[in-house]
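thought: user wants a sequence for this fold. calling inverse folding tool.
action: design(structure=
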């Protein structure tokens, strides 16, 4: 099980509570013609959109911090409040990303388990062999996508921690000396956000490839 962090812990209880309802949800959707394969594609798309939203929030926080460390007169309280808002928005967006990835993983596991079980229903050896090959190929592609998603997700925690530290420090030290002190942290944070953005772009690219492949195969 994935280690719980400041980012993922609030989602764990919700995920556990909802997991028991998923099989009933999938059954209900299939009764109206929406299959696990369709749900998986939709959830990958939703995760991609959540990652894009998260990128925007992290960039906004970086821009705000850039403005703050170049602060030259004005009301520091206002600047702090804006940075705090950006941090809270980034945290919320990051939690949405984690929630969506968990949903993607859940439906994929259900789909692949169902697919493997249904292989035993074939009477034709050739059709069973072809379906098994498609299952294995789809699983390989999905595993690559999930690794990409989780890799990008793992980069959010250190960025959020750094943003939180800066916001917390400024909260109790709203003066020019405090602004000067966080400048030393800024270079590392800027680098971490760049790495996060790159990893998210890779994950988004892999999502597009997976969606395209699933639609072709469908």
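)
observation: tool returned 218 residues.
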């Amino acid at each position: 099980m994935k280690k719980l962090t400041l980012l993922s812990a609030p989602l764990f209880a919700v995920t556990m509570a909802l997991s028991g309802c998923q099989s009933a949800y999938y059954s209900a959707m299939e009764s109206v013609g929406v299959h696990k394969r369709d749900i998986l594609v939709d959830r990958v798309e939703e995760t991609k959109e959540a990652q894009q939203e998260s990128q925007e929030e992290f960039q906004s926080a970086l821009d705000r911090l850039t403005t703050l460390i170049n602060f030259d007169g004005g009301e520091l309280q206002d600047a702090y409040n804006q940075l705090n808002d950006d941090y809270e928005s980034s945290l919320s967006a990051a939690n949405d990303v984690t929630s969506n990835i968990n949903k993607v993983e859940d439906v994929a596991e259900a789909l692949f388990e169902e697919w493997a079980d249904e292989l035993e229903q074939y009477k034709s050896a050739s059709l069973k062999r072809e379906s098994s090959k498609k299952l294995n190929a789809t699983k390989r592609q999905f595993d690559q996508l999930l690794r990409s998603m989780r890799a990008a997700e793992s980069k959010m925690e250190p960025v959020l921690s750094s943003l939180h530290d800066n916001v917390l420090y400024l909260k109790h030290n709203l003066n020019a000396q405090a602004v000067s002190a966080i400048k030393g942290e800024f270079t590392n944070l800027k680098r971490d956000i760049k790495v996060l953005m790159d990893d998210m772009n890779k994950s988004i690219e892999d999502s597009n490839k997976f969606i395209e492949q699933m639609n072709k195969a469908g």
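thought: summarizing for user.
answer: Here is the designed sequence. The chain has five helices and no strands.
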